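Complex 474.
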Amino acid sequence: MCFSCFFGNPVFVAAPNIDTIVSLAKRRGFVFPSSEVYGGLGSAWDYGPLGVELCNNVKQAWWRWLVYERDDIEGIDSSIILNRLVWKYSGHEATFNDWLIDCRKCKGRFRADKIVDNKCPSCGASDWTEARPFNTMLQTKLGAVADDDPTALAYLRPETAQGIFINFLNVQTTMRRKLPFGIAQVGKSFRNEVTPGNFILRTREFEQMEMEYFVSPTAEHSKLVDYWVEQYLEWFGSLGLNRENLFLYEVPGEELAHYSKRTVDIMYRYFPEREKPWEELMGIAWRTDFDLGTHSKNKLDAEGKRLNPDSTEDLSYFDEAAKQRFYPHVIEPAAGVNRTVLAVLMDAYSEKTNDKGETRVILKLSPQLAPIKAAILPLAKNKPEIVGMAKAIKRSLQPVLRAVYDDTGGIGKLYARQDEIGTPFCITVDHQSLEDEAVTVRDRDTWEQERIKVADLAEHLQKRLKPYPVPESI
Ligand code: GAP
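Predicted structure with glycyl-adenosine-5'-phosphate bound:
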């Protein structure tokens, strides 16, 4: 039976909350709670066979868009553990703090800025200790040293950005770059979050996609922030995010980080069920010349004293045309891989319900992000010729796209499974295929079926796997 007949006029429903995605993610092999065999580890998650593909596709889409398609951005991959002095001069050792308070009644410990109406979220009391700073950089020790040797202390990076700043001159000189240009990096960052939670939204180990765009001190910095906000809105549109689920937050002065003169956060509707549904997806900050200046040996303070007596380099730039030396300013779009993945899953989630109230989940992922692009399904698994042909098609598609062969159920079940994990195309090999050298290609979103010659299949699929066009509303 054809599914569209079975379902009559379907009703689509987007993900009503994060829990719906947690359940789908575990059921279908996207994300598992970490260390489950030992009772888990709070707020740590492992990416399964489909989750790792989805994350990789997000990162590759980002890298292609910035590093390959533009001509003004280079990529790097710096160490996670850097010289401790990097974090001294970046300001993280002194200021990368959450403010903690303890409830005197129930001894619960909370972030001071998250307390509503001065009431303890556990017991409702309002008897608090003084707020005190808690540095959220994760510490480790390097080498076989004594436990109390202070010189062995090192940090796991809390942002990828600093690895870019300290390599500014290396990249600029080796790639012979002139301003403006950017450096992109994607990789793991770590923060000892006091209150992690909400699935992969806030974890202690996460991945960032950061780009530092270096410009002259006289550039129009605020306009450049707006420019990058627009660029990212377009990019998120191409990943399939609905503009209505994105919201721009102009960060007020008192909330700005120590290095920022202006920051705009792109928020996503992670909590559609709540009165306040928005949470940060990414931020776009004008970091001024703070970072290059602070890591430079020649930068002086107001009294003419060297700001950084430990640095051996000067990360300034000589502008040939203007015959001037200066510290470039930076516009930084900083996005989270995991938060992008969660937003993509929430926006792609849809349910079709028929007249009888039966529901199917369809993950309408942008084809470029789908973990599997095509599933090859034999209509009769007891017919060696059909199975052989299906497996040969899978092998022939593999060099150009991610394809799988599946014969572990009836065709209806196989279609439903692929819909639920977002596979854009199901390809069925049937008895007629043996004669006409053609297969049926079924579209995930419309359930329409087309007969395509095997010889034309790879080209046909590749044409249809392009990113979504940017919606007109953006
Ligand atoms: N270099 C600037 C910077 O790190 P941020 O706003 O602290 O800025 C950028 O982080 C992005 O990294 C956030 O918008 C978010 O997407 C992601 N991120 C930050 N902390 C995170 C956490 N604990 N868990 C998951 N993602 C996180």
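The CA atoms of residues 368 and 467 lie 6 Å apart.
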